[in-house]
Amino acid sequence: MAISTLNRLSSQFNRLPSLSPFTKSLLTRSFAKVADRIVKLSAIDPDGQKREIVGLSGQTLLKALANNGLIDPASHRLEEIEACSAECEVNIAQEWLERLPLRSYDEEYVLKRNSRARVLNKHSRLSCQVVLTQDLQGMVVAVPEPKPWDIP
């Protein structure tokens, strides 16, 4: 849906007489780039409902989940591992684990220290440390329930 809308807008820009040819080509190219960066994912919310979410390659999984209302953006304002307390922990489906880079030492440390399960699960990742790529198109993630002490 988003790609067809971008393509439609792109064709409408070409019909505008007031835009210079350079501006038209610039707008058309930028729309194509956005469409090429779209990564569609499936997320299982804490209630067990499957939701389709959209992110952009180069963006963190945290940003995509927050933009789609699955993680409260205020609970994790910084995407720096030193400030992380694992509020952005997600579980990645088995078939997608090998497509992700290995967890860094810092990510493992934060997960062990602050994990909701208190045990390091191979499916657990910090969404602030997972950068979306086109290889992750269709990835399935589960967003666990918030910790009781995190609920206002």
Describe this structure in words.
The protein has 152 residues and is an alpha+beta fold. It has 2 domains: 2-35; 39-150, Ubiquitin-like (UB roll). The protein has helices at 2-15, 21-37, 61-67, 94-97, 105-114, and strands at 38-44, 50-56, 89-92, 124-126, 140-142. Helix 1 runs antiparallel to helix 2. It is globular, with a radius of gyration of 19 Å. The model has no long low-confidence stretch (mean pLDDT 78).
Task: Provide a brief overview of the structure.
The protein has 152 residues and is of the alpha+beta class.
Q: Specify the oligomeric state.
A: single chain
Q: Give Rg in angstroms.
A: 19 Å
**Ranges with pLDDT <50 over ≥5 residues?**
none
Q: Hey, roughly how much beta strand do the residues contain?
A: 15-25%
Q: How many separate helices? A: 5
Principal-axis shape equals globular
Q: How many strand segments?
A: 5
> Please, what is the CATH homologous superfamily of the largest domain?
Beta-grasp domain
| The CATH top-level class label of the largest domain | Alpha Beta
